[in-house]
Amino acid sequence: xxxxxxxxxxxxxxxxxxxxxxxxxxxxxxxxxxxxxxxxxxxxxxxxxxxxxxxxxxxxxxxxxxxxxxxxxxxxxxxxxxxxxxxxxxxxxxxxxxxxxxxxxxxxxxxxxxxxxxxxxxxxxxxxxxxxxxxxxxxxxxxxxxxxxxxxxxxxxxxxxxxxxxxxxxxxxxxxxxxxxxxxxxxxxxxxxxxxxxxxxxxxxxxxxxxxxxxxxxxxxxxxxxxxxxxxxxxxxxxxxxxxxxxxxxxxxxxxxxxxxxxxxxxxxxxxxxxxxxxxxxxxxxxxxxxxxxxxxxxxxxxxxxxxxxxxxxxxxxxxxxxxxxxxxxxxxxxxxxxx
Length: 340
Ligand code: NAP
Description:
By secondary structure, the chain is an alpha/beta fold.
């Protein structure tokens, strides 16, 4: 069992992202991008992990920024997460990403929990920081020489939650304030999406989930935190205009999955925007139906991209090369020749 550390209620100052900031010369010195004894590491831990697109995306960003870093992927069993995290800390990794099933477990392991990670109850990004002789803490990825640190600490962040909103904003071009939304699914991702949507000042949220008790619990959370948002566990009345319908169920991942919505309860012609968190396949039957009905649509690749760019920014303190990372992600997920 991971030890339960008390949360240190510290507002971690994210390295201010400064376009003019320069990464330390020792990190940039390896211009030909060859592995050497100064190479620093970041990694993603998950189980399973072989499907992960993060190494392709992050290594493209790292190469573009001419960092002497590598981003790896490891299959880590939940019962060995503690050991694997301690190993990365001892080896002065720059940071880690965590995916299923480690996001909740990591919350108890990190030394300090960033407020966003605490709010969403999950850590998907860890930054390691080292203490200097003069007591200052510096992110490992931004140090001249990480071998000089007196000790290392870990900070847990969550970049998933903001990534949903950034993707809806940039990929659908939809400002959310005052909108009526339908959210399909109330699992881990659905809960975070519901709270994030509510935090933007949407007017009404219809929460639809197979297991109604889960949707009810999410609705209760929203009523506690954002009482001005009207919540419902039913579809809107027929003919009501809906600004956004978001699929956060896993229906659509498999070719023979049923639709995640009931077409007798909602006419997609009344929906203007549709978002599916699934990005593989690039167009789920839900998105196809929505597109046919005239909706503007986007899949979840943007969400994956923006959680990754935010993680890289947390480690480097620099703006991430989003277009390079997007291209690498596209090529990895859909192949070089795909138009998607
Ligand atoms: P999860 O916690 O396991 O939740 C799964 C959700 O799907 C629940 O709402 C569940 O309903 C519903 N569901 C599953 N099978 C169903 C069925 N046969 N009929 C009706 N509903 C069904 O998973 P999650 O982590 O929230 O992920 C949800 C989806 O988001 C997945 O497709 C995942 O790939 C995607 N996702 C994408 C990103 C990204 O970066 N793009 C990130 C995270 C997640 P019940 O509550 O009734 O079981």
